[in-house]
Amino acid sequence: MTALSQLVERAYAAGASDLHLEAGLPPAFRVNGRLQVHSTPLPGATVKAMAREVAGDSWSQFVATRSLDLSRRIAGVRCRINVLQSRRGVGLAIRLLTAFTASLESLNLHPSLIDLATQKHGLVLVSGPTGSGKSSTIAALVQEINVAQSLHILTLEQPVEHWLKPQRSFIRQREVGRDTPSYEQGLTDALREDPDVIVVGEMRRPETMRLTLDAAETGHLVLSTVHSSTCAEAVARIVSAFPAEAQEGVRAQLADALTAIVCQRLIWREDLGIRVPELEILRANSAARSCIRSGSLAQLATVMETGGDDGCWTRERYARWLSGRRSFHRPSRNAPGDVGGADEPTGSDLPPLQPVAARSSRSAASSGAPSAPAARDGVFVLDDDGTDTASILSELLGK
């Protein structure tokens, strides 16, 4: 067993959600939201060897970009992994994924959320800070659709965290960077692939947000995540990602497309020995749509206070519901290596996608012609934009 497998086993047995490895530092486990430092510092060569082990054929991509996202099964545990470069050297941030099938019940979520899984179209956003269980909540909603309806579900994730087994629905999962070069390309493709439900792993870039809103407006149910601490902040985060002159139109589009925002955080329950999600829920009733369209986002708190009949929940009211709940699901962990289930299919024998260099949409829009190739140490790097490289080489060589 490799050193990395042993560390994953120890972290999993300790109930850790994350494992952090850094050259020259001891391993750190995040258990119940708190970081615990273990053992002795790891040599840089050891951490680099672990990174090469998990990266495999993608190591050259990491060398080129100094960052790599992937999912692997290590010691029987499915892991979401980010390989990174820091001042000390190569590091790993590993999220340990539990093997259970996510559901509203298993995540201790309010049963009324099942209504979001019955919507025919519109945008459902799940927001919260990093590590608050957003992806699990999305997976639970998709699973509710999967067991109850015969629909075509398409997911775009980076990487795929929850491997979903089709039941009544037809599920197609695509990993950004492996199966499609970007969220933007995946969303463009999705509109040609006859989906009923589209899952967008995360909305970060304005173009991803725009395409996600377009998909929600064209008759699809779209589920996505965004980082924010309140429902109002989730709306503000989307709107502020666009230039000032476009924000009014984005607010109008969001007001029309939005179905609900679920903002969650995990709180520790000493009496249960687990963390449970505490929610704030905004349903897009007429008052909420009016606030979003006019930009009066501070009024959304009042909308949630008065919109209980429409399915809105303030965090305080949800906390009272949690305190009165008598039955909770307590997840159990099998021993590492016994978590069950085979690795998901790895796809075709096509060569891996090359990383796409991020371009500024503002600079791209302002320049009608492609920029000249950049020279580094006397070497010109040509973008893959259809340029006839043979003629350029002939000209450079004087032929």
Keywords, separated by commas or semicolons:
2 domains; Beta-Lactamase; 15 strands; 13 helices; 24% strand; 32% helix; 399 residues; single chain; Rossmann fold; alpha/beta
Structure description:
The chain is α/β, with parallel strands linked by helices and 399 residues long. It has two domains: 3-97, 2-Layer Sandwich (Beta-Lactamase), CATH 3.30.450.90; 111-324, 3-Layer(aba) Sandwich (Rossmann fold), CATH 3.40.50.300. The chain is built from 13 helices and 15 strands. A seven-stranded mixed sheet has the order 9-8-10-11-7-12-13, sandwiched between helices. The protein has a six-stranded antiparallel sheet with strand order 3-2-1-6-5-4. A two-stranded antiparallel ribbon has the order 14-15. The protein is globular and about 60 Å long.
Quick rundown:
The protein contains 13 helices and 15 strands.
Low-confidence parts, pLDDT < 50 over ≥5 residues? 337-343, 358-381, 383-387
Portion of residues in beta strands equals: 15-25%
The CATH topology assignment of the largest domain is: Rossmann fold
In the CATH hierarchy, what is the architecture of the largest domain at level 2? 3-Layer(aba) Sandwich
**What is the N-to-C succession of helices and strands?**
HEEEHHEEEEHEEHEHEHHEEHHHHEEH
Strand neighbour order, sheet with most strands: 9-8-10-11-7-12-13
Number of helices: 13
Q: Structural class per helix/strand content? A: alpha/beta
